[in-house]
Amino acid sequence: MKTYDHKKIEMKWQRIWKENDANVVADSVEDKENLYILVEFVYPSGNLHLGHWYAFSIPDIYSRVKKMQGYNVLFPFGYDAFGLPAENAALKHEMNPRKWTYKNIDKMREQLRTMGAMFDWSREVITCDPAYYKWTQWLFLQFYKKGFAYYGETPVHWCPSCKTVLANEQVVQGKCERCGTEVAQKKLKQWRLKITDYAEKLLDGLEKLDWPEDIKESQRNWIGRSVGAEITFNIKGQEAAITVFTTRPDTLFGATYMVLAPEHQLVQQLKDQISNREEVQQYLNRAQRKTEVERQEQKEKTGVALKEIMAINPATKKEIPVWIADYVLASYGTGAIMAVPAHDDRDWEFARKFHLPIVEVISGGDVEIAAYTDNKNGRLINSGSFNGQNPPEAIGAITDWLEENNLGKKSTNYRMRDWIVSRQRYWGCPIPVIHCSQCGIVPVPEDRLPVELPELDDFKPRDDGKSPLAKAEAWVKTKCPGCAGEAERESDTFDTFIDSSWYFLRYCDPLNDNTFADRERLKHWMPVDFYSGGAEHTTMHLLYSRFWIKAMYDLGLLDWDEPYTIRKNRGLILGPDGQKMSKRSGNVIDPDEYVASLGADTVRMYLAFIGPYSEVGAYPWDMQGIQGIRKFLERVWNLREKVKPDIDDDPRVIKLLHQTIQKVTEDIDRLKFNTAISQMMILVNFLEKQPEVSRDTFEKLALMISPFTPHLAEEIWENLGHRESIFSEPWVEFDAALAKKDEVEFVVQVNGKVRDKMVVAADISEADARQLALNSEKVKVHLAGKEPRKVIFIPGRLVNIVL
Ligand code: ANZ
Ligand code: ZN
Question: Using a 6 Å cutoff on CB, does residue 248 contact ligand 1?
Fold first, then answer.
């Protein structure tokens, strides 16, 4: 008996696939429907870890099944190659980032080959390749010409030690998350994309997508649409007025003071009228050091009155004081609020602390104890002619009244901000514009793209908010394409989220030098049918790329405006100790080790077995589990010994076989690879008990395992005398009549007395039987609403509910 020599088998088939271009995909094949299955491309860290195996080998199973089911499947791969990690690693190893990146790509490509995935390597995409980023730049310029991209000063958080702009999320208690240095506020000129113009389209588009509800919900929250009104409050004795955004115009009569964000321009404009200027200035200085997140989360409210400034409530005509406080953000709404302490928590706390009046305008709460924030129930009081209405009615009525009197208007606000895309980093795609003192911003002419990233000896980040590229004088200095005068290149580079916003288009036509991708080819493949990725991606990449595609659609460059029809996020593989894998915990599983000792097929199948891929779970690596899979594959391998060409299988074998095919087929479609494998194990157990197994049955088993264990399946197939690859075979079909489960009459008792009978599958599970029994009308009568004390289950026979 030949033992299962995984090394030999896997090397052999990887070689054959490569030699035969087995996985090269044509853009269209007669009589075949195209299917585009996408996995998130990889950041080239230089080492393929277990998470990558989980991310790529399981979608490969799905892709292989779909291919066998008759689809022309595109399953490509590439590298998200620009970015800070490469730059940092290169700094650390004193190596050029380009060299470092390409060295890693070469290594990972080799590791990936051992996975046996059906990636079409001829379509590989690398974002730091000038042939790719030429089109990143070209697309950006189209956006710019259409007004989707703009340049201007914007406040940013700056870490003086890391010498870079930080995102809001990277600032913790005023300090840099990475190095703990106190963060400074800077104003820098930055490139931004107008993603906020797409807020409505991005929301509407979600409705037609077959995506998990939780991802859609996080996108909705991120976009943060709020419907309400803008209301204008005059300032006593001044030309200036304060406009606020509110979601609760119904509470207007209860607005007893106003608050401006410290950065609000009126604070400077009214300076001369304010009598406590010193105090105000000190407050402004303090507020500056806090981040938006901190300002929103802080428990203790702070603020300062702008003494001498009074606003007039347009509903009550009463004079109300104007304050500044950092719980009001400059970047949201109008940067000013009408404060309604009786019905808003933050205003309530603030009013309590500073002894400001609290006027109840909606009945139903007790404003001595807390703000009453319910916006559906209660009735308006202290609100003139609006008294007696409920809040939804009053929102409409008061907004109408404001509009009629020119005091305000309906308004919608979004939490999402425009996307800042400039980075002061070396290792990124150069932004293809030129700054000319005569002509202003001038796009680099398209026939001079790409603007190549120059080689630099010193690519360290700098203190002055400029990119290291700014030092490359020979590169920076250029002629203005407009007036031919002296001009300078933009020296910032793009956020890498730009690179990843369109990579899936390039897979459709990776070598095209005339356009980002040929329109016909895009038609063959796009939109992506199925996109599998990490659970950490719900907004950023998935939102940016949706925006990017919608913008391209509006430019007339694409024929559809959503990139991915189905999106699924996968779970996480934990260390054997049930903890997140990390070098520090010493619980990292190295896939290469297991590929060497047990084989890629075993690793693939084990990962498919570890938990349902349809859910975002966390599954600990189990040493025995993977040994069990290896044993299983050996048993499949050894089954060959029992195969006889011309025998008839026992009818029980035939039945189980068809049931297995059905379950495996259906489970794979639902991404429940784990239960598909369990079912195959049941079949193999049963086959082992037979004295002989027909060739037909064994072939069907080989076909079923082939997407999970492609090398082993090819070897078995060849041993059976086939000359073509097993993957050129159609997927196994089942006979529904044969697969039909045996049925039995099932008895439901209550306290030992028969109350109902039903026909169910013989192997009905306890949970299903219990559910059916409790839902039976005949049974419910006898339960009389009581909770069962106990439910006894006898498989295939009865359920007895004991009260
Ligand atoms: C009066 C009012 C009364 C409010 C009430 C709420 C309850 P969302 O849903 O998040 O959009 N607001 C407006 N601009 C703000 C800013 N720049 N900084 C901090 N808070 C701001 O919230 C809208 C509400 O948040 C607005 O409605 C405003 O307070 C506040 F019983 O106005 B409201
Ligand atoms: Zn010029």
Answer: yes
